[in-house]
Write a structure and sequence with these properties.
It is built from six helices and three strands, in the order H-H-E-H-H-E-E-H-H. It starts with about 25 loop residues before the first helix and ends with a helix. Helix 2 crosses helix 4. The chain is mainly alpha-helical and about 140 residues long. It is elongated and about 70 Å long. A hairpin with a 2-residue loop joins strand 2 and strand 3. A three-stranded antiparallel beta sheet has the order 1-3-2.
Length: about 140
């Protein structure tokens, strides 16, 4: 039995947006991305997501990832926040809950932030060229 994942209102199953340097975010896209980054801003949540994402089987039982230095109820709370942000999905099997990264979300988050330095350098170069042309 698969448990449906609660999401931020309007949040897609994958990250929503083109790379941040290519276009300004809409208000809705900004809210979705902010919820994801807010969930990732907690070190315990980041460690839990890392443990799930790096698990050899592609999914992890809560019993395998709970040793992060906080109590079991706190682990459950953090996993719930990661699910609500659309970063994880879960499935109950008997007494255990198994977690996996939401399809496409990690790759989309990476693409959202990708080439920021390169694109920033290209924009700076274009601005310098434009300014040089105006001075000439």
């Amino acid at each position: 039995m698969t448990k449906s994942t609660p999401r931020l209102a309007g949040a897609p199953a994958t990250a929503c947006c083109p790379p941040i340097v290519t276009a300004a975010l809409s208000e809705g896209d900004a809210e979705i991305m902010a919820a994801m980054f807010k969930a990732l801003a907690d070190p315990v949540r980041l460690r839990l997501l890392s443990r799930v994402a790096s698990h050899p089987s592609g999914e992890a039982c809560v019993c395998d990832i709970a040793d992060v230095g906080v109590s079991q109820p706190t682990v459950s709370h953090h996993l719930k926040k990661l699910r609500e942000a659309g970063l994880l999905t879960s499935e109950r099997r008997g007494t255990w809950v198994y977690y996996r990264p939401a399809p496409g979300v990690l790759a989309s988050l990476g693409a959202f932030l990708a080439d920021t330095e390169k694109a920033g350098a290209e924009k700076a170069g274009a601005e310098e060229t434009s300014m040089a042309a105006q001075v000439s």
